[in-house]
Amino acid sequence: MTDTTGAGLGPLPRTHGLVADDIARYVERLIVSGELSLGAALPPERVLAETLGVSRNALREALTRLAGRGLVERRQGSANRVARTVPLAAALTERMNDVAAEFRNAVEFRAVIEPQLVRLAADRVDRAQLDALRALLDSGSESDPEGSATLDIAFHTAVAQATGNPLLAALGELTASWTVAARLYSHLDADGRRLSHEGHARILAALVARDPDAAEYAMRIHLAEIRDLAERTG
C-alpha cells in the first residue's frame, strides 16, 4: 500500500490497554506484514488520526515509539514514512503470540531437511566452500542477536549450496527464509548464540573430514540443542 489517503488503515482494533500502545502495535503489524510498503509515506497525522478514530496526541506518541524502534521515519516539515528497512527483531516482536508454535514447526521442518543436506555436502564440498564456511564461523558474534542470526542463516545456506545441487541449494534458501522468526528467537539468548557457534564448529569439522555420518550427527545434535534450549527457556 503506497497511497497516503489512509484507506484501509482503520478503524483501530482496540484492547483494554493505552490507545498509543494499540496504535503502535497495529501500525507495526501492518509494516512487518508488508501491508504498508517500506519507504511509503503515511497519511497526514490529521487524516490518520481520524481514520483510526484516535486523538492526534495518542497518534503522535505511537509514531514516536515506532520511530524509536526503527519502523517509522519522522522529519520536521515532511510526511511521516515507513522505514526503508525493517529491523529483523521487529519481525519477531510482531509475531510473539505465535512464536512458540512457529518455533516447533521450524525445528521439526529443519530436522527433516538439514541433516540430509549436510550429509550430501560432506561428500561434495570443495575447498573454496570450506573456506567460506570457515570465514562465517570465524566472524561469528555471540553478543549481537541480529548479527548472530544473520550469520546462522548464511552458514546453513552455504551448507545447502555445498551439495552442488541447485534444487537442494534453493531448498536450503527457502528453509532459511521460512524459519527467520524462529532463528531470531533462539539467538535472543546468549546461550543460544553460543550453542549456535559451537554447533557450526562441529558441523564444519565433519565437513572438513568429509565424513557424512559425522556431519549428519553434528547437524542433528546442533538442532536438538537449540530446540532443548528454547523449551527450557520458554
From TrEMBL:
Domain HTH gntR-type: 17-85
Gene Ontology MF terms in the entry: DNA binding; DNA-binding transcription factor activity
Pfam families to which the protein is assigned, alphabetical: FCD, GntR
PANTHER family: GNTR FAMILY REGULATORY PROTEIN (PTHR43537:SF44), TRANSCRIPTIONAL REGULATOR, GNTR FAMILY (PTHR43537)
Keywords, ordered alphabetically: DNA-binding, Transcription, Transcription regulation
InterPro entries registered for this protein in UniProt: GntR_C, TF_FadR/GntR_C, Tscrpt_reg_HTH_GntR, WH-like_DNA-bd_sf, WH_DNA-bd_sf
Keyword Transcription part of the UniProt annotation: yes
PROSITE patterns given in the database record: HTH_GNTR
Source organism, top-level taxon: Bacteria
Keyword Phosphoprotein listed: no
Species of provenance: Microbacterium oleivorans
Gene3D superfamilies in the record: GntR ligand-binding domain-like, Winged helix-like DNA-binding domain superfamily/Winged helix DNA-binding domain
Protein name per the record: FadR family transcriptional regulator
